[in-house]
Amino acid sequence: MNKNLQSPLISQLHRLQGQLRGVEKLMLDQAKTSATLQQLEAVRGNLKSLEKSLLAEKIKKINDPEIKKSCDYLLKIS
């Protein structure tokens, strides 16, 4: 993996790990369900963002302009 790409993705992965630890703490502390669900939504959003970042890097390497345009569109709407 490209070292320039690796650092932001790894940082994002570390944020995800922290968010999941936060969810665990909320559950262990028997926090309000709404607080736990809010944190889980943040995890879901961050994970989706990480997925898009990984795919975007691969799409940049596609040589066929029509396929590239279609993939970019799918990433945009997902």
Q: Looking at the structure, what is the overall shape?
A: elongated
Number of strands: 0
Report the β-strand fraction as a percent range.
under 5%
- Helix/strand/pairing class, anyone? mainly alpha
**Helical stretch tally:** 3
Give the uncertain stretches in residue-range form.
none
The biggest sheet amounts to: none
**CA(first)-CA(last) distance:** 24 Å
Average pLDDT works out at 89
Helix content: over 70%
From the coordinates shown, what is the CATH architecture?
A: Up-down Bundle
- Radius of gyration from CA coordinates: 16 Å
CATH domain class: Mainly Alpha
CATH domain topology: Methane Monooxygenase Hydroxylase, Chain G, domain 1
Order of helices and strands: HHH
| Total number of domains | 1
Write the layout of secondary structure elements.
Elements: H1 3-28, H2 33-60, H3 65-77
Helix pairs in contact: 1-2, 2-3
Summarize the structure.
The protein has three helices and no strands.
Question: Which terms summarize this structure?
Answer:
mainly alpha, elongated, 3 helices, Methane Monooxygenase Hydroxylase, Chain G, domain 1, 78 residues, 0% strand
Overview of this protein structure:
By secondary structure, this protein is mainly alpha-helical. The chain has one domain: Methane Monooxygenase Hydroxylase, Chain G, domain 1, CATH 1.20.58. Helix content is 86%, strand content 0%. Helix 1 runs antiparallel to helix 2 and helix 2 (33-60) packs antiparallel against helix 3. The radius of gyration is 16 Å and the shape is elongated. The protein starts with a helix and ends with a helix. The mean pLDDT is 89.
